[in-house]
Amino acid sequence: MLTIHADSRGRALAVEGEGIAMAGPLEELTAAHPRARVRQWPGILTPGLVTPYGNELLEECYHPDPREADELGTEPLTGEALAALAPDEARWGASARRGLQRMLAHGTVAVACEGLRIRAVRDALRRSGLGVVGRTGRPDGVPALDPYASGRPVTFAPPREAGSAARFAVFDVPDESALARAGARSCVATVVAGRLVYRRR
């Protein structure tokens, strides 16, 4: 089924399967596809973010389960706390799945990483549908789920156009300069491979 995603500025994308069938003003897309489902979002549609910290966020920190909050807290564990926890393969996989969900909640559609060592982490990333971008060496800045909090330039996925993969995000801000101020926590929806994989409640 074809779905049209539109932002508050009237910009829209028609998504069919895993790709973008059409891009343009909402009125043009609804005229061309009168039976399509329309999702109207607050804020702006963007191509989605690329996090440069795949290794750091998936294999160098542990994302606690909410059920572990009393024991471990809610923030990712790194350094000595991570070493003391010493997660096994299954726990690493569960942590990676939670970390990837938190990335999606920040409008991330692709992850840059190199040589992931833990099989359960590799499997979780593959199953997430997120794009994978190669990298060489450790990026500068501070690893953060919100790329705007890293202290380095923010990278977006390639522009959205007809025929390209449907990977984009929606942020509840009026424009790109407001997004830079508010950060990726303003994300209200993330679409990967044509699927709505995150929607803010």
Could you characterize the architecture of this molecule?
The chain is α/β, with parallel strands linked by helices and 201 residues long. It has 2 domains: 3-47 and 159-199, Urease, subunit C, domain 1 (Roll); 49-149, no CATH class. 28% of the residues lie in helices and 27% in strands. It contains 7 helices and 12 strands. It has helices at residues 26-32, 54-59, 69-72, 79-85, 89-104, 119-128, 176-182, and strands spanning 3-6, 11-16, 19-25, 37-40, 44-46, 49-51, 108-113, 131-134, 155-156, 168-171, 187-192, 195-199. A 4-stranded mixed sheet has the order 3-2-1-4, with helices on one face. The protein has a 4-stranded antiparallel sheet with strand order 5-10-11-12, with no helix packed on it. A 4-stranded mixed sheet has the order 8-7-6-9, with no helix packed on it. The protein is elongated, with a radius of gyration of 18 Å. The two termini are 24 Å apart. The model has no long low-confidence stretch (mean pLDDT 93).
